[in-house]
Amino acid sequence: MLTSDKIKIGVLISGRGSNLEAILNAISSGELNATIEVVISNNMHAPGLHVAREHGVPKILTLDALAYASPQEYETHIIEELKSDGVQLLVLAGYMKIVGPTLLSAFKDHMMNIHPSLLPSFKGLNAQKQALEAGVKVSGCTVHFVTDDLDGGPIILQQAVLVSDDDTESSLSHRILLSEQDIYKKAIQLYSEKRLVIDGQFVRILPEGGMS
Ligand code: GAR
Fold it and tell me: Partner of 193 for a Cys bridge, out of 4, 40, 52, 131, CB 3.0 to 4.6 A?
């Protein structure tokens, strides 16, 4: 049984939304003690918007960053929407835009991202392709807190995925995605149980049921 308080989540997406869907499924199954209050996409064609609709997310918005006078105004609008719904944790799920200082300071220590590599290896775009080109035998995925250091914030959870000789970018991405969907919900649940303590670059995970 989940004993933590239900936390209110906001999710930013740009595309497919399979991590969003995994989080929504984990909420439905009772694995994750949270509610998704709002989903915001910066891309009006994001398939993830349908995912949010199908799961009955109460507020779904498309905000075009280019329609704002400045990145600050764009992010200020995002913050207003999130705060008006009482969002405590902001989850980036395939949000392919660099988060600026306005949003960073509003959700400092309360914003997570999933990245398809074992950070600090292969930051930035096309991480799975970078891994294949580097010839690594193990890759994986990372959930981390978001800071102004791109893909460099404190690491919460990681999961390794073996790379096989005949992997393509697509086959490796698919296996990494399954791991992403597994660890993202776990990281969010740890946050909801107040078990994540940020200490500089390090995240300490408190044991279940109390302080260490
Ligand atoms: C995921 O693989 C996620 O790790 C990656 O985009 C994909 C989104 O898939 N994010 C990044 O590369 C961020 N740097 P989804 O829309 O199906 O969740």
Answer: 4
Instruction: Name the token pair of 115.
Output: 């990245």
What would the pLDDT profile of 34-66 be if each residue is shown by its tens digit? 999 999 999 999 999 999 999 999 999 999 999
Question: Where do the CATH 3.40.50.170 domains begin and end in the chain?
Answer: 1-107, 113-212
pLDDT-based confidence at residue 211 (cuts at 50, 70, 90): low
DSSP H stretches of helix in the chain: 18-28, 48-54, 71-84, 101-106, 127-134, 169-192
What number is the average pLDDT over the span 126-138? 98
Q: Is the dihedral of CA 161, 114, 126, 152 positive or negative?
A: negative
The answer to whether residues 140 and 176 touch, using CB atoms and an 8 Å cutoff, is yes
Ligand 1 pocket test: pick from 19, 42, 171, 176 the residue with the most ligand atoms within 8 Å of its Cβ.
19
Q: Which among 80, 27, 30, 85 has a CA at the least distance from the CA of 56?
A: 27
Instruction: Name the fold adopted by 113-212.
Output: Rossmann fold (3.40.50)
Question: Cβ(115) to ligand 1 under 6 A?
Answer: yes
